[in-house]
Amino acid sequence: MRLLLLVVALLAASVSAAESLPPEIDAALAAAHLPQDAVTLVITDVDPAQPPRLVHRADAPISPASIAKLGTTLAALDLLGPAYTWTTQVLVDGPIVAGTLQGNLYIKGQGDPKLVLERLWMLLRRVRAQGIEQVAGDIVLDHTAFEVPPTDPSAFDGEPLRPYNAAPDALLLNFKSVTLGFMPQADGIARVIADPPLAGVVWPALVPVAPGGCGDWRGALRADFSDPLFPRFLGAYPAACGERSWPVAFADPGSYAPRAVAGMWHEVGGHTSGVVRDGTTPATATPVAETVSPSLAEVVRDVNKFSNNVMAQQLFLTLGLRLRGAGTREAGRDVVSTWWRERISTDVPWFDNGSGLSRDTRITGQQLVRLLQYGWSSPVMPELMASLPVAGADGTLRTTRAGTSAHLKSGSLRDVWGVAGYVDGANGRRYVLVAVANHPNASPQPLPRGQRTIGMRGVVEALLAWMGRQP
């Protein structure tokens, strides 16, 4: 505690002294058209006993965007353990007679963040292996482990077809998205493949091929998803693109799970006399098959490397379900806040939904530093470190130029861009870096005559280069 108070005092002294930034960083901010009072910058040792190297606006509350996932994923690793898994069960409420289930078949979700197409197919294959060819009753989908209010996928940023806007769900199937594959043929058309097959949805089988460069090929298709059951392409597919895929959130997310299960059940050779619908699993139902998710360590890697919003929200709700008995956002927030208060600091940031896809989440640079310093000393440090994008190599930072080795979580929203994580110094020590901008120029912006600002990414690249040169 004495060391923590020392660090807080040093940070406060650095902020009050308003020390000037290195000339290279000043120049990068100017090139990005970012004023100093719009950015938070902190560089300090992973050891809290060491004084900070650079501090600028460390105590200002900021919107962190997806950097907030650091709190959710570290709390989950710490509280549930890296080996934690989710189980999705299939249960029945009647006997199987001559290949027919005399009753209903239930699929009970428990929040699995990665119940993707291949695993759903394997699960239904296991059901068929139990001798079930026909379901005399209904196939019932149980989402009740989570309590998630209805949401409008376009409410956040007006992009309802982006998979990152999918709402969390106790029975989250394939992120509620469809992957459209386009394969140009020699006869001037491109074949269209949609996975998974959704019952009742008729996708175009073909689309014309157009000459010219690839460019904005999605825009060239002029997709019309206004009728979810009969999507259309009013344009053409550029031949220069070759084979491409396009993940699209289904336009009617509420009907996605029943349509996906019905389509996949038919594909594995199953039949039903009833319907596929949402409902609740009775306590007397008997398990017949199950699928177990990848480990939490693997899930966290997907969450942080690729900044998967809905998977992060699944973790947040799982924490509430397992540690408070309620799969609600409020319960998840209580778990993470209590964990932070007990293990990091009594100065607790405001977590909204655990993913950072929110305008309400607030944290300071100083709080992020404490989180990362705690993570460095935690037994789950290897799993956390392995989950972070490596600047210039993979994940969301694969195109970021790095002057030194850096494992950083990025965050991006409209008017927000930043990173937080660990950087290797030229002196062999490891440092915590926090660099976030809250400003309209945080992301690259168009300028007259086709130019663009470099955005906060350019400032981060300048910081990494500066750190790589420091003795």
Task: Give an account of the 3D structure.
The protein contains 12 helices and 21 strands. It is of the alpha+beta class. It has 3 domains: 2-83 and 296-469, 3-Layer(aba) Sandwich (Beta-lactamase); 87-151 and 254-292, D-Ala-D-Ala carboxypeptidase C, peptidase S13 (D-tyrosyl-trna(Tyr) Deacylase, Chain: A, 3-Layer(bba) Sandwich); 174-252, no CATH class. The strands form 5 sheets. A 5-stranded antiparallel beta sheet has the order 2-1-21-20-19, with helices on both faces. It has a 5-stranded mixed beta sheet with strand order 17-8-6-3-18, with helices on one face. The longest helix is centred in the first third of the chain and has 16 residues, at 2-17. The chain is globular, with a radius of gyration of 25 Å. The model is unreliable at 1-18 (pLDDT under 50).
